[in-house]
Amino acid sequence: MQIHSQAMLRSYLPADDEAKSALGLAPSNFRILIVNEDMRSADTLKRTLNDLGYFATCTAYSAKRALAVAVDFAPAVALLDLVLPDMTGYQLASRFRSHLSTCVRKVPLLAIAEYSLYGTTELARAAGFMGWLPKPVEPVALNALLGKLQTGAWS
User: Fold this and answer.
1) Burial class (CB within 10 angstroms; exposed 0-12, middle 13-18, buried 19+) of 63
2) What is the CATH number of the domain that holds 61?
3) 9-31 confidence digits (pLDDT tens)
4) 19 within some domain
5) Residue 110 forms beta bridges with which residues?
6) pLDDT band at 38 (very low <50, low <70, confident <90, very high)
7) Pairing of strands 57-60, 131-134
8) Is residue 140 part of a domain?
């Protein structure tokens, strides 16, 4: 067993400024929570994120599981499917926004919708989402939204 000195470990820990803000993180360090009941869709989205350079992901297959892992995982953004087995994505967004933990309450949310309905954008924004993407998620559109979020250029 190898023992590392505290000085060696300190170099691997993020500075306080970095820990407080997800802005400016390299894609590989940008923590993304994927919430989707369909394992195939969730895995496809995870592979797409990996192809784009986003490797720090966590997948939850239900809203209940998403709420349980959100505090420990501390995502920089959450991609929520609007159709989940235990509640809708809109209800989950409401739970995120009213969560006791500040880090969960302030997580930027992006909705993933099976199809576009009239008013989807307005409904998503009213529920606390910063935006939404239709399924199947286009890598270019996803990368553009995540890039805007990282640089703080979200409109």
Assistant:
1) buried
2) 3.40.50.2300
3) 232 333 333 333 444 456 778 99
4) no
5) 79, 131
6) very high
7) unpaired
8) yes
